[in-house]
Amino acid sequence: MGISKNVSFQHPIVISLVMVNFAAQHGVDVQTCLQGTGITEAQLRDADALIKREQEMRLVENIMRALPDVPALGFELGLRYNVATFGIWGFALRISRNLREAIESALRYLPLSTAYCRLAIFSNQQEYGITADCSDIPPHLQQFLLERDTATAVNLFNELALSGLSVLRIEFQGKAPAHADRIEALCGIATQFECSRNAIVLRRQDAELPLPMFDMHLVRLLEAQCRAQLERRQVEGVTNQVRQLLLGTMGLMVSLEDVASQLAMAPRSLRRRLAEEGTNFRDLVDEERKQLASQLLENTDMKLEEIALQLGYGDTPSFTRAFRRWLGQSPNEYRKASKAESPS
Questions:
Q1: Which CATH class is domain 8-232?
Q2: Is pLDDT of 344 > 90?
Q3: φ, ψ dihedrals at 151, nearest 5°
Q4: Which of 73, 236, 267, 339 has the highest CB neighbour number within 10 Å of its CB?
């Protein structure tokens, strides 16, 4: 089944519930987690509820903001996901013929998982595993979601593990963060940094290890159900597609004309489609700029001129005026207040 790069997928609410419960264990209340997400507490209790990608990303941002001092936060969260979390998708992995077919199935229906990174299989004479590309994720969320996706994959490997299966090492492209030792302590796997790729590396022969619950009849049945779930969860609204482009590789400096070209439609058609969905391009850009500006002011020491440039403003005064319009105070006032509210 081909998946269009301009189609986003809804995620089951249980994925968010895992995050909310994880945050609660660190002392963060539900209201703080859900602020600005549009997710209700009633939805959290509805096993069949689905949410959009941007809602989940807001939830991630809220948790990052509430727990800035927890080392390896994303990795620790990723370890809370298991095969059962993912319903049909997880069950399909468990009843695959071997580890290689389980991984191939996982990637074929990847939107049914938590993954935000683009995952791919690599293989050579000695090693086999998956690589993770996080370049499409907004920069301020890349490390968190890369660590979350990596830890989730490690946990799934461990749960599917048979005697003799072991992860050789985890590789990260970036420099070792301050919490590098914490990552290794959490998973017990050798972790390397400044590598040529982000990857989970196994022995080549482990790819053919048989899984004990293999059932060909169930494999065919669950494949059909996974395909049906993908179709159900597709979000094809133009508003959502524009959000994904703004949050991804095109960034916040992109023009409506550039976005329209990427979506293969005329600028006039894009304006009309957004209006039909109750919004417009400027409001979408403003919303993402406001969210990112708040994150950068709260969690970094970036200068205002650097933040303005990151958000696509030509100068700092333009950014300051926009910020006052959004939140009724200057960026410096907001930063000072957020630091005063942070736990010591």
A1: alpha beta
A2: no
A3: -65, -40
A4: 73
| pLDDT exceeds cutoff 70 at 8 | no
Tokens of 20: 């909310």
Residues of the chain with CATH 3.90.1520: 8-232
Q: What was the pLDDT predicted at 54?
A: 82
What confidence category does residue 98 fall into, taking pLDDT thresholds of 50, 70 and 90? very high
Distance CA 150, CA 141 (A): 14
CATH topology of domain 238-341: Arc Repressor Mutant, subunit A (1.10.10)
Integer Cα distance of 119 and 132 in angstroms: 5
Amino acid at 89: W
Residue of 201, 193, 173, 177 lying closest to 73 (CA atoms)? 177
Q: Please report how the helices 267-276 and 238-247 are oriented relative to each other, as an axis angle in degrees rounded to 10.
A: 110
DSSP structure string for 131-172:
EEE-TTS-HHHHHHHHHHHHHHHHHHHHHH--TT--EEEEE-
The predicted structure's pLDDT at residue 4: 44
Locate 172 and state its tokens: 């990260």
Is the dihedral angle over the CA atoms 307, 313, 315, 318 positive or is it negative?
negative
Residue with tokens 């189609």: 7
Say how many C-beta atoms besides its own lie within 10 A of residue 276's C-beta: 11
| Residues forming a β-bridge with 129 | 122, 201
Task: Give span(s): CATH 1.10.10.60, the chain.
Answer: 238-341
Q: pTM value? A: 0.72
